[in-house]
Amino acid sequence: MRIGMWIVIAFGISAILLNAAQERIRLIGVHDPITPVTARFLHRNLQEAARGGDRLVLIEMDTPGGLDSAMREIVKDVLASPVPVVVYVAPSGARAASAGAIIALAADVIAMAPGTNIGAAHPVSLGGTTDKTMESKVLNDAEAYAEGIAHQRGRDEALARRMVRDSISLSAEKALDGHLIDLIARDRNDLLQQLEGRTYSRNGREYVLSLKGAGVVASGMGAIEKILNAISNPNVAYILMVLGMVGLYFELSNPGVILPGAIGGISLILAFFAFQTLPVNYAGVLLILLGLILFIAEIKIVSHGMLTIAGMAAMLLGSLMLFESSDPYLHISWSVILVTVLATAAFFTVVVSKALSVHRRRPTTGREGLVGEVGVAETGISPEGKVFVRGEYWDARSDEPIAAGSRIEVLEVEGMLLKVKKTAQE
Question: Domains in the chain: how many in total?
Fold first, then answer.
């Protein structure tokens, strides 16, 4: 018993020592636009790196930029991180543009691969045009923000200001010559070799990077973060919104089907989450909703296709206006817009109209199905008698005398008695 206990204790101590010995370099990849999901992902990793005593957080970056609010959250986390942070713009052909450039400025060390570029950090108006005064305020704020970060990290403040005000973009070589970045590395191994023994400054104190014996461990997004990141794509958010609207309409027009309503509700919730991460123009949302209403009106009003054309025009304009930004990664693809508009128009004009025509069709079974049926008077009806309708004999009555053998038409069903009249032919 004692031997077993000592074995368990030995294993526990070994595991603790092994875990302590396996110090690591946390590798994080940022290869998409900067969104709140990206900010959440980096915040989690920086906290885990601090708790786990990681020697370094290495962010490999290739981004066109992103949202200002998400960028500022990331910058605050990077500046507050007790673990040194290195931003490596790689591989060759990658870029750290706009928000990515400001995040890179906040790192303890900036490295770039040959053939990469950094800069173009001029703020973009997201959500419509602004007046000159507001544009000047936004520009001055962004310029001061970049200058403050560059000053704190000991980088060239003039170049940082020009990246914002003049939207300049620098190659790796020019950024190194201008003291905006710290080194150029061919690949990750070359970077780690150059970082070994390198000093960096924090709050006026110098520290030395010691990376020997530390293994590089990649940390990717979790399942939830991957889903949230995927739906933050403007194309996906747009499709989810349209799918949600169509699903809810189908459920409200056909209560009890359940599945379309459930799918529509989930799609709309996901779309609204995505809208929090994107520069949404709600005039575009209203135009898309108007387009759907016009499609529905076409089914119930004879307009000879005019309402369908108007609905397609409203939906097309709303789709183009939905995400208003000059950044191409915040635009909806033309192919996605055209396919979605045509598919939605076809759904309402064909599928929904067929479903409504079935609902409007006269019943063919039960008591309602007997009304309007034609049969034969088996006996004289004055005012009551027998008739033969749809293969069965019925008691019948009539407000007018009907001779035996005459053709009759059912007017009403009163319990087990039919009210009939002579047909027009008779």
Answer: 3
